[in-house]
Amino acid sequence: MTVPPVDEGPREARQGDVEDRTARNIGVGCFTTFIGLWSGGMVAVMIGKVVEGVRGAPSCVGLPLCNWHVYAGVGAAVGAISLPLLVLMRLRRRDVRRAHISRG
Question: How many domains does the structure of the chain reveal?
Fold first, then answer.
C-alpha cells in the first residue's frame, strides 16, 4: 500500500502569509518608531513646560523651557520604544485571533 502524496499547496500559502506578515511588521515597526520618536518628544516637552511652570523655573527667551532637550530626548526614546511595541502587540493579537478563526 502506498502513502498518498502530501498536498503542498496550503503549506506554501501559509509560508507566504508568514513572509507577508514579517514584511508588514517591519514596515509598521519602522514607521511607528519614527512617529513615536517625534510625538514622544513633543509630548515630553509639553509635560516639561507644565513641570517647570509648577516648579517656578526661569524661562528662556524664544524657547518653551531652558532644558527642553532633556525632556525631548527622554520623551523621544520612550515614544520610539512604546508606540511600535504597542502597535505590533496589537497586530500579533489580531493575527492569532484570525488564525484560530480560520482553523475553526
Answer: 1
In a domain, 99, yes or no: yes
The count of residues in the chain is 104
Give residue-wise pLDDT tens across range 16-51.
555 578 888 999 999 999 999 999 999 999 999 999
Residue 84 lies in a domain: yes
Question: Could you tell me if 75 and 42 are in contact, meaning their C-beta atoms sit under 8 angstroms apart?
Answer: yes
Predicted structure pTM score: 0.71
Classify residue 5: in a domain, yes or no: no
Closest by Cα among 66, 70, 79, 2 to 38:
79
CA angle (39 as vertex; 61, 78 as ends), nearest 5: 105
